[in-house]
Recover the amino acids of this structure.
């Protein structure tokens, strides 16, 4: 059994160019909440035991966030598959793993994944502000609430920093280990500067 990190949150989302701002908004939100974003990006895609490592990574995280809004043709199964792994981890020990769902549209999840009927996803409508507000609301701890406006500013600054970094090191995507590590570090520095985290 993997040791659970209470602060870690696994992010399961489409690795599409159009999703980059939402991905960075998730990173900014989790950092602002003193959480540690984790992702399958961290696992080398060499095919050697990747499934086991992916399951272990999810199981090591106290929570996971799954965005099932990428409904298109051809169908992509990575997001529902990783959600299935999270469901297994939660089933094995509900005290050590919980998961949240994200969707673009209300009620669509009832049709696309009826087995999870009764779980209300965070609806972001494709906008990072709605996503941030939803994540802050779900992870809110009484007495330690985070002002969404501060996180909106952190996310906007993070968008600019990451865009500049992509140009500097000639990256076409943020969905690789180098850019993920940079985004987490930059978001942490912005949260410290905003007074949300201690240096």
């Amino acid at each position: 059994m993997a040791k659970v990190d209470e602060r870690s949150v696994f992010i399961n989302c489409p690795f599409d160019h159009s999703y980059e701002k939402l991905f960075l908004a998730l990173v900014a939100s989790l950092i602002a909440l003193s959480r540690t974003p984790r992702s399958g990006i961290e696992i080398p895609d060499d095919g050697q035991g990747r499934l086991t490592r992916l399951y272990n990574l999810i199981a090591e995280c106290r929570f996971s966030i799954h965005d099932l809004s990428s409904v298109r043709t051809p169908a992509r199964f990575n997001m529902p598959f990783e959600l299935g792994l999270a469901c297994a981890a939660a089933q094995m020990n509900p005290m050590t793993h919980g998961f949240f769902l994200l969707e673009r549209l209300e009620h669509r999840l009832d049709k696309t994944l009826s087995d999870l009927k009764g779980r209300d996803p965070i609806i972001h409508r494709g906008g990072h502000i709605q996503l941030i507000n939803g994540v802050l609301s779900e992870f809110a701890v009484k007495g330690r609430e985070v002002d969404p406006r501060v996180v909106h500013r952190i996310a906007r600054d993070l968008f600019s920093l990451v865009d500049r970094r992509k140009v500097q090191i000639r990256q076409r995507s943020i969905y690789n280990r180098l850019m993920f590590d940079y985004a987490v570090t930059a978001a942490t520095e912005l949260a410290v500067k905003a007074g949300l985290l201690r240096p």
